[in-house]
Amino acid sequence: MPTVTRDRYDALVLDLDGTLLDRRGKLSEPTRRAVRRARDAGYLVVIATGRSLSGARAVHQDLGLDTALCAYNGAWIGPAGGGAPWHYAPIPDEVLAHVEGIERRARWRFRHQGDHKYTHRADHPEHRRLATWFHNVVQLDDPSHALPSRDLVRVSVFFDGEAASEEAWRALSDEAREVLHRETFPLAIFPDFEDVGLVLCEVQRRGRGKAEALRWLEEERGVPASRVVAAGDQANDVPMLEKAGLAVAMGNAIPAVRDVADVVIGDHGEEGLSRWLDGELI
């Protein structure tokens, strides 16, 4: 197993759900201590998540980090408290008409603009749960009132199953698929929705994904990718794992993540990250 020492690596880039957070979606005390210990030992610690800025801010603050927050799968990188981002890659306004084609096939949608998510209010219990689960949600009561139609960093659309999601994506033009990127996964991977059969499809502008966090480290802190340890568990972690000097897959990682990893550690529900960091950092 590769050894993590200060003479080989200078930074840790860590995914949130399924990596830093436990099966309840919480930051455990052992993980909190291990990450703070890494920070105090001189490692730059960066959170790279598919969550929104507001959805990841509390963990960033809890860990006492002074690094930029990489949110929206790398489409937004900047201060955790908000303000001008270092990197921002919204969906091009002219492509939004194509995204509307996907939305029409979905059960419902949330449009992400700035630090808020906009949706039309629905009486369905699952929609109400989602509106509570997301941070900074604005619900419009009148369906005739249009949702924001410019400067969107993401559109989250929910389908009854994988087949419906695939059909909606295939209906896009080739030109639109060249510009857009999607991440699709069962909503049940999140602890709050283990009983829900919906599939979540998150549509954004195509880019470097979470590998943007490595670019921030190199350009802003002088740390090359070869001296970065990255850890994750899902498909959206693959871009940063492929670029990192040491790629770490969680024990709960999907096969695509394990395939690109240099090392596989314990499950996130069994303190896999904290045990590994405590055993390898010094």
Radius of gyration: 19 Å
- Topology order in helix (H) and strand (E) letters: EHHEHEEEHEEHEEHHEEHEHEHEH
Beta strand %: 15-25%
Q: End-to-end distance, in Å?
A: 14 Å
Name the poorly predicted regions.
none
The DSSP helix count reads 11
Mean pLDDT: 94
Task: Please state the overall shape, judged from the principal axes of the Cα atoms.
Answer: globular
CATH topology of the largest domain: Rossmann fold
Tell me the name of the CATH class of the largest domain: Alpha Beta
Classified in CATH, the superfamily of the largest domain is: HAD superfamily/HAD-like
Question: What's the topology here?
Answer:
Elements: E1 11-14, H1 16-20, H2 29-40, E2 44-47, H3 53-62, E3 69-71, E4 76-78, E5 87-88, H4 96-104, E6 108-113, E7 116-120, H5 125-133, E8 137-140, E9 154-159, H6 162-170, H7 174-179, E10 180-186, E11 199-205, H8 212-221, E12 228-232, H9 238-243, E13 246-249, H10 255-260, E14 263-264, H11 272-280
Parallel strand pairs: 1-2, 1-12, 7-8, 12-13, 13-14
Antiparallel strand pairs: 3-4, 4-5, 6-7, 6-9, 9-11, 10-11
Would you give an account of this structure?
It is a single chain. With 282 residues, this protein is α/β, with parallel strands linked by helices. The chain has two domains: 11-88 and 208-280, Rossmann fold; 93-205, Hypothetical Protein, Haloacid Dehalogenase-like Hydrolase, Chain: A, domain 2. The chain contains eleven helices and 14 strands. The strands form three sheets. Strands 8-7-6-9-11-10 form a six-stranded mixed β-sheet, with helices on both faces. The protein has a five-stranded parallel β-sheet with strand order 2-1-12-13-14, with helices on both faces. Helix 2 runs parallel beside helix 11.
